[in-house]
From TrEMBL:
Transmembrane portions of the chain: 70-94, 106-125, 184-201, 207-226
Biased composition (Basic and acidic residues): 22-49
UniProt-listed InterPro entries: ABC1_TM_dom, ABC1_TM_sf, ABC_transporter_C-like
This protein's UniProt keywords: ATP-binding, Membrane, Nucleotide-binding, Transmembrane, Transmembrane helix, Transport
Species of origin: Angomonas deanei
Highest classification ranks of the organism: Eukaryota, Discoba, Euglenozoa, Kinetoplastea, Metakinetoplastina
Protein name as annotated: ABC transporter transmembrane region containing protein, putative
Keyword ATP-binding: yes
ABC transmembrane type-1 domain: residues covered: 73-244
Length: 249
């Protein structure tokens, strides 16, 4: 065998070794079939965490599930009317003490008893209307999510962990069905109570308004600071429970 032939064979072996190393390197860098899908790097969708405040569109979508604008206005009107009935007995009692209308004690007493009875009936009425309103929203939301999962393609189940789907129908629905209803009713009660107290106080003692304004601003700044921290903590703890993304059919 000549020297030229030996050199040619050695060069050929080196070229084959380089090609083999290149192929092995590409195979190592290439994701496995279990981790990839067409058009993406990973099979499972990444868990995302929202930032900033909750957009108003989210609240509007939820109230739409609860019955829409008309139902929301009816519930707000019922809460406002029941709050008026609740504080009316106290206002009437103050008028009775000052003899503002010059009526007899019997008349004042009859009106006061009627207002007290109406105030007692307003509380269960408020809770009943609020729970019915929120219950309808929870049922509609559950039906929508269930319908979306039922008609979902295989891509939905390939890209969404089963634990995330189970959380939508267990923990999240439980929160919407129980905690959210109580929070909504307590929020409405608290806000209406604060507004009625401020209104009565300002009407009777207008100078209190100059004290309430700086106190309200300080409370608002403290509320914004607390909500920002509390919201991020809750979101960080619920990263694994991100919303379902239904692929287009």
């Amino acid at each position: 065998m000549t020297l030229a032939t030996k050199e040619h064979e050695e060069d050929k072996e080196e070229t084959e070794e380089e090609q083999t190393d290149t192929v092995e390197k590409k195979e190592k860098e290439k994701p496995s079939a279990k981790e990839t899908k067409p058009g993406t790097d990973t099979l499972m969708t990444k868990e995302e965490k929202a930032s900033g405040g909750v957009p108003w569109s989210t609240y509007m979508d939820y109230f739409r599930f609860c019955g829409g604008t008309a139902a929301s206005l009816v519930v707000a009107g019922v809460f406002a009317a029941t709050e008026v009935l609740t504080v009316s007995s106290t206002v009437w009692l103050s008028m009775w003490a000052t003899r503002r209308f010059g009526l007899s004690d019997a008349t004042y007493l009859v009106v006061y008893v009627i207002l007290v009875l109406l105030g007692c009936a307003s509380s269960p009425t408020r809770f009943s209307v609020g729970f019915t309103f929120m219950r309808h929203g929870c049922v509609s939301l559950h039906k929508t999510v269930l319908r979306g999962v039922g008609v979902g393609t295989m891509e939905l189940f390939d890209t969404t962990p089963l634990g995330r789907i189970m959380n939508r129908f267990s923990r999240d629905i439980d929160v919407a069905d129980n905690n959210l209803q109580q929070s909504f009713i307590q929020f409405m009660n608290c806000m209406l109570s604060i507004l009625s107290s401020i209104l009565i106080t300002v009407v009777s003692q207008r100078i209190v308004l100059f004290i309430l304004l700086p106190c309200g601003y300080f409370y608002y700044r403290l509320l914004v600071f607390y909500n920002s921290a509390n919201r991020e903590i809750r979101r960080t703890g619920s990263v694994a429970k991100s919303p379902l993304d239904f692929p287009p059919r």
